[in-house]
Protein 1
Amino acid sequence: MLLGLLGVVVAVYWPRVAHAGFAWDDWEKAAEATFWSAFGPFDAREAAYQPGLAALLPLPHLAFGDHPSLHLALASVLGVAMAFCVYLVLRELAVPAPISAAISVLALLFPWSDSVRLWATAGASQVSVSLLLIGVALALRGLTEPTSSGSRSRRWSLVAYVLSMLTYPVTPALVGASTLLYRLRVPWRRAWEWGRQDLVAAVLIGIYVRLATTKPAQSVGDQLDHAWTILEEWAALLAHAVMPFGDVPPGVVWACAAGVALAGWAALRRDDADSASNDRLTVGLALVAVGLAASLLAYVILVPAEAKYRPLAPGLYNRVGIAAGPGVATLVAGLAVTGVALLLRRGASRLAIDLAAAAVVTAIGVGWAGLVRDDEALWRRAAIESERVLAALNDPRLDIPDDAVVLTVGHPHSVAPGVPVFGASFDLDAAIKLRRGGEAPRAYPLDVPLACGPRRAVPIDSAIRDLPSPAYGALRIVDIERRRVWRVRSQADCRRLGPLVAGRIQTESVITTLLPAS
């Protein structure tokens, strides 16, 4: 199984690894690991609410240095580990091996959180979902083991859950609802006996994260609006996941999916088919129910978060859907198993139904892989644009001194929504320090015109948080595309250059032609 998952990850994600580049937080994390602060390479602010991730993020930079291909290869390997954990959980639930394997492959491909394998920093968040799945597998095994062995499994499953929630806090809702999953193996009383412990842990850690987070709090009204957006996008995402080809309206897909599930339930009620078909109908409908609940719970946790975190968020923001991938994959496979079992009502063996359902899931996986490759091409384009910016800033002909403050124009800040080049106050500044070995000018992308004050230039209503207002004399404005630098010595210089600079600001480049696949 592991070899198969490795084959998939090489086939789909290798172009990104081969043409790698850092983006967004990658540069900041690399700089923190190179130029230590009082807390060493660790981010103390992040450690307050997700200590596991704060501990993990510097490690690849300490091990691999400034080699993005190695970082992205690690992200792919972590994806394989997560997908294999999905397989282990499904086998604990007695899901047939061919179907479990197909679901694991879908979980590895899931294009609605593919930034965790296309963006190095996000790759570490896969550890959180792997820990969750390990905890589930241990709990499922412990529920049916003798008391002593079961107690050990219980303790370790709780440890895995807690570590998962403290690594990347997108899993508490899933942990809190574990009773529903345990019920598939044991009676309600036994399931609740363990599930209530998980619920207490999830609630306590959820409260801790809410109190410790540095993310802005949302009003009740904003949270209600966000909840509705999440529900709408979750429904649209599921429809696209079931039918990734063409432009079929979500309502049509939902109607067909509901028809398959209801037909399967009715067929089980009639009990007029052979045992193999009925057995697989039971498996398929159980997978549909588990996948539906798990995917929704994975997104419900986002309700208190900022509006940009939603199921169909583009680019780097889709990382928050990482815990939904296994659930959506399970739902899709469940519909495939149910549909095949309905078609092969008589005379087909269990293995024949399993293989036919796995073939259907594989076809859907091809569609998912195509979506990933489209996203991958955008990330590779962003890496090329980033290198163009850094090459210009390091051009000796521009003669930019280390004590300068640089504002850059003439380059895109992103190649598509959520796929950044340089568009933050921390990424370009960290990147130029890394390329120059420490002593370097402070450098920031400029996204708005400048107001020319008496002593300094002030960006007007910048969307880039913490963009500085540089003093005259130190300020350089660099046009990346034209390889030109202007020194701004006074208010008069600023006013003279203002219209020219404003005309060279480019915040986003719309990519109409994708790069080749390799």
Protein 2
Amino acid sequence: MGMKFTEDQQRVIDLRNCNILVSAAAGSGKTAVLVERIVELVSGSGCDSARAVDIDRLLIVTFTNAAAAQMRERITKALSDRVEAEPDNEHIKKQLMLIHNAKIMTIHSFCLYLIKNHFNDIGLDPDFRTADEGEIRLLKQEVLSELLEEQFALGRQEFTDCVEYFAYDGREKWLEELIERLYTFSGSYPFPEKWLRQHRMDYHVETFEELVKTEWFAGMMQEISALLQECKEQEKAALKVCEEPDGPYFYAVALEQDQELLAGLEQELASVVQTASEPEQSVASAEMDSSVAKDAFEALAARVQGISYARMAPKKDDSVSAEKRELVKAMRERVKSLLGTLSEKYFVSGPKQWLAECRQADAALCELVDLALLFGERLTEKKREMLFPLIKERAIAWSVAWVEASEIDATDILSARMKAMQMAIDGLSVTSDMALIDGNRDKGHSAAISTAHRCIVGGDGKSASIAAASVLAKVSRDHYVTEVLDKTYPQYQFARHKGYGTKLHYEMLDKYGPCPEHRRSFLKKWEAKR
């Protein structure tokens, strides 16, 4: 017997010739609906018989490889069931043969498939390969180990406090996992570093008034609202069963009292949400006990913690269905369980405890975000270091050139860049017919690119040649800073900050002043910070 779909689910299965966006809760049958829709599209059933498509003409994208494998398995089973029901349908039999070539994969796998099959159209070496998951995992572990070892050696108090907060009892592995998970999660946003920095101060609150205006508090209120809504739906459904001819009508009184209880909770929740949306008031920490937000939240907490349920009538009536009696009981127990979760998850401690925990977590979270950012930098750096010798080995020709800091100060940074680019082009072992320039500028006040060229905005994301050139330039620069400048001027610790405008670099400048390698344009930033 096939699965019985709801009216909305059947609409999703049957809808054609338009874009569809389906949003539903976890466990609501989205995958089953998608499988049925795919099978209907390829099986030639009903009104679609003339427009039936082959399964290998569809693109089915999942989030993970495991989900892709499960989707392929479920579609195969559904097609097999159709073959058993329609043994003479040659089209469905054909789909069972084509399923092995169907594009059921993650978006990464599909992009890789496109590149591998069209490398000639984008001028890519057909011998290219991407790092597999095992290589990336080992690389991340290596970078994490080196990063934490370095931080332990530095002995900074911020790092020590972070370790004690997130990896108490000597379980540094937990901290490694947190850093990696935070870094990976941030990658789901268009600008990961920006997202991390935006949330670095999420727990930096001084009063409860500030706390209720945080993004995570708003998210918590939404979760509570959704939970109360589910409780209301359970109670409504239970009452509907009670109203049926053979329903347990004598349970209705208790269920109606439950609805009143839920209405009271929603009213208190609305008060908290309203105080969170009002303009921020100036409330000193010492005055927190009288804050409006705190009073509203404590009223909600008191109502949740003081929940008591009316006793369901023990009346016996032979006309009442025993099955429906048990169904109503189970639905009410579900409501009790949800409200119990609400109390345990959100209302065990009060506003004072929350503020204390936020203050304790604030510094630890800031350090954790900084570690995730640093991990991302080190991981990218490690990848560049691995690519550096490969690019030099496989490139038809390569060249690196630079100009001195004194020349940059004497002209301007753009002219110096153009001069260095032309020097690199001239230094190639082959003659260049066309140069690809990253960006939209090809000349400065005193220098310009003389070779035939084309400017490409965001070139390192569009051209493999520009991307490879940027790796050579970046790694060569870092090698010069760490291997030459660090040895010449060890007091500045160039090997650690690599000459960038970091806190450590500015601290060394404060202590020792500038050296001959410091550009005046860079020193302006340092002087501004002073």
Protein 3
Amino acid sequence: MDNNKRPAGLILAAGFSSRMKDFKPLMKIGNMTPLEILISHLKIAGVEDIFVVTGYNADILSSFLADKSVNIVYNENYEQGMFSSIQAGVKAAAENGNDCFLLSPVDIPLIPPYIFKAVLDRQYEYMDCFTVPRWEGKKGHPLSIPSCFVEEILESRGEQGMKSVTSAHEDRMIYIETGCRSILLDMDTQESYKELLQYYEENKYPTEEQCRKILDRMSTPSHVIRHCEAVTGTAVCIAEALNEKGCSFSIPLIQGAGLLHDALRVQKKHWDAGADMALIYGYPEVADIIRAHMNYIPSVPVFDITEKDIVCLSDKLRQEDKLVTLEERLEPIRTRWADNPEALKIIETKIEAARAVMEYIEGIIGVKVYDLLHQDDKEKEAAGGKKEQGRRLVLVRHGETQRHKEKIFMGQYDVPLGQEGREQSTIVGLELQHFDIKTDRIYTSDLKRARESSKIISGILDNHPEIVELPELREMALGSWDGRFISDIKREYPEEFEERGKNLLTYKIDGDAENFVELQERVMKKVRELIDSTDGDVLIVAHSAVNRVIMCSIMNRDLSDALRIKFGRGTYQFLEI
């Protein structure tokens, strides 16, 4: 959360729960209470200051909340109704210095974190308006209240509850249309509680359609999606074979975790980034598997397994979308860490643990896992036919450069690779070997970081492609700011720096600089020429902005998408051409 933004979450939990005939804040939804769910979701959305307004059963709630890192606000007037709790919460948050308040009754607990975040993002664009999400035109929660309404709320008699204030400001209401029904679902009665529990069970895991929308939103590369699909198919095949023998593994959980486990592979520590993404969407069990899949080591000997074991094993059995043995999967990793005995020992331990999981599974299903998967692959191939491979454009970003004492503007400033960057380029070379790339050339930017990455990759690929240096593939020119510390630029050119941040696509620092529009024109002229003048695949090693404008052009996407596409150092993407 931006340090200049201080949102607060207001959870109203002061009522009698008279219609429910049970104490709503502490009832169970899965293994959590409504209070715990709302607190967790607000924190995941980046809200640090959370106020829980209590009244009825205040002592019980205070004890329950003692270790939850929230602010407890006792509403001594709780018998007067919900508006008195709103006033108590708003007053406490305003005195704390918070600038907007996300209002959530405790009996509407299934608001996912991304809704809280979306409402907050919109609120900070319109700090003189209320912000509220809607589903199919119906207003839901949270209601976001900016601090400019504090005085009016505290002075209101609230005859109509919060409507006493909002109805006077219909022209200051910002609505966000969502596809999320849970912003309306309450648990006011036993009947509505049963409906809410049913919704919770049916929406604990993302559907395939939802996963694919997330993959598209995250701009996950097509080859990574194929890997995720292959891992999912493998994991589901294993789980279904186990379930046929009396087990009860959750296929929806396995599908969700399998399809999303590498969604953010282009980012650093993609397992953590991917898990955080799944949490934002409201899928904590999926997030747990994603976070574990790179470093998980099950206990040996194996006496029991979970969905996590099945997905993690399946990930090791697929080199991209190709079924491989554990030994085959280990071979390139051994090459990479040949000079690091400690790392090799950890990797060997992981493989041995995976082998133990596989033997445990085989003991239940009565067949070899590889035989099961080979048969499944054959049946899928027979049903769908084998797709002929077309031409591909392979985009690689150079590895991490040598570090400076602080962040710099690195456009065409010529910096060599650091040790981490050389390791990243080695990994890229090892992984690209599995794709049968049909080219005898690597086209690279002539800047050091790209040239060095290309040389490492060429040395690993079996046919050692010729390296062709092209200045047209250089990173965006940043003029007089190139190579300078960002902190110095912010201090010396505060207005220009702010203006650039507002208009990254078209802003030019000076006459020697480029913007994204000019970069795309310069780069795509050469890329089109390479595609038209060659056969087979085209392999390019370049830079972040260069690769992103190429992606927008080849995929027929608006250039503005270049600002949200992530392309990490030492990563690659495949595009069909």
Protein 4
Amino acid sequence: MKKTLTINISGTIFHIDEDAYEKLQDYLQKLNNHYGSSSEGREIIADIELRIAEIFNESLRGSQVVTIAMVNDVITTMGTPEDIFEEDGEYTEKTTSEPYTQKIRRRLYRDPDHRILGGVTSGLANYLGIDIVIMRLIFLVLVFVYGVGILPYIILWIVVPKARTTSQKLEMHGKKVNISNIEDTIKEEYQEVKDSFNDLRNKHGRTTQDGIDKVINFLGVTIRLILKVFVIILGIGLLIGGISSLIAFVFGISFTPMYFFGDITSELFLSGNKLIMFAAGISIVAVIPILMIIFAGLKMLFNFKTNNRAIGLTALFIWILGLIFIIIISINQGLSYKYGITTPTVTNTLKHTPGDTIYLKTIDNVNFDTRVNNIRLKSIQVVVKDDDEIIIGKPDLNIIKSSSDNTEMCIRRSARGASRKIAREFAYNIDYHWIQNDSLIHFNQFFNLTDDDKWQDQEIDLTLKVPVGKIIFIDQSMRNILKHADNVDGIWEYDMLNKYWLMTENGLKEVVKK
């Protein structure tokens, strides 16, 4: 059984064994005696204690009490007082041990010492080991040339922590966090401040020192005020922009002509779980950045405390998950159109008519109530009939010269699918009819798909072969399905309606029939 004590190191409470406490106290006492009570020394001691607390927290996972072994690990990591003092010239004896040269992994922090806004680019430059100017130029190119960079900068500003302590600054530069490096860093900071002040004082003379202090204080207050106003304005802008974007997105998917997740998507492409996953993915990818912009605006305005890293990483994970949903469904949907198939042509010989004229007309075989959103994919569209949404398509009719004395109707179907077999099934599922009544041929204006079929690029091609010497009359109703008709005068198909045409060796020629 050991006696334990409770101690406070850098604001963190620890339970420690008595022997460990004595060794740690002796270690810290030697450091205090060495660095003295100056402001520089106090800051060094404070950073050392903060690093010791971090090491204890890492070591106490699954344990409750700091042991002598943990204290020894701290001393090994931070360095013994003798080693530190020897470097400062207080000891003349040299040790034979080689310096510790293990490469330390850099950690990503925002650099507050070289920042313009949030220290993101300078932190990335330190992490990647490149010049800060180059990193800033990269961000400027992303912003002004490619139109991106602002949102990643804001996200990194929120997610990446600032290097506040000396230990974090050393980790940011990939240096080992020990007493020697902590001391060097703080001394360098103090020296930079001292040199800057001496340069300013030497330039203007001691007689102007009070005036300089006042000017510096005034400039400091002014800059801080300007920055606060800028942050407030930026926060308001982000908040207004984020809320406006969120409202626009919600209203957009609810009231735009496409009804994004509704009629067109569900009727023509997706259904069931695929539709739910795709809708969820689109919503997540669009909404998460908007919510992060709103969060950044609120953070700038009210400066409330949050775990920015946890929030940012969670948002990034959810956003990537939504993107994965979209990619999976898109790839799966794209593969369903991989193979295209065209069925063999079916040729029907028309019955001989008593006269020399064939009349071509269409009948409205669907008689739908309304179109859904008036959007078409090639020949396919969604319509409403008796409150039911159905998919219909428009056939294409070509009129050419027959190579025989017979009038022939040729039909060819085509579709796409995940395999040739599936594509063939989709093609044969197309429901289309035409009928001959003596000299009158009635064409259905539309073809239908089965209830379970979606859009698979289904098409119907009709070819009417007319023998030489035969006359055809093209009714006005043929406007919707007539695609091409060979004629000697090169007349547009729409101008051939409601007229008589004689098939010649060179094609159709308009005739006036009495």
